[in-house]
Design brief:
about 50% strand, 11 strands, four-stranded antiparallel sheet, mainly beta, about 120 residues, globular
């Protein structure tokens, strides 16, 4: 059974940090890219970051310099370190698996999401 399980969300004050984790199982983890997305109330889903199967990180302009993606292939885990959080970062955060590992194909598997709330 394919699973992507996010954890690490919560409530934090503006300027604070959180580290999200994405635990993957049931598919060949090292062949996929893993991306992070978020969806805020009333807004379109937004792609934030992705790490390719070769370990190349990509970031959207909205999080570049504040968020860092990393992976631990031995544990089938991907992390998103989020620093300098802002109230506008409040959203449900999802991880997803990119089919060809390049971060620009399509996202075949998705997690259920974890809530991040940033208070002002």
């Amino acid at each position: 059974e394919v699973q992507l399980v996010e954890s690490g969300g919560g409530l934090v004050q503006a300027g604070g940090s959180l580290r999200l984790s994405c635990a993957a199982s049931g598919f060949r983890f090292d062949a996929y890219g893993i991306g992070w997305f978020r969806r805020a109330p009333g807004k379109e889903p937004e792609g934030l970051s992705c790490i390719s199967s070769r370990g190349m990180p990509y970031y959207s302009d909205s999080v570049k310099g504040r968020f860092t993606i990393s992976s631990d292939n031995a544990k089938n885990m991907v992390y998103l370190q989020m620093n300098s959080l802002k109230p506008e970062d409040t959203a449900i955060y999802y991880c997803a698996a990119d089919r060809w590992g390049t971060c620009d194909s399509w996202y075949e598997y998705w997690g259920q999401g974890t809530q991040v709330t940033v208070s002002s």
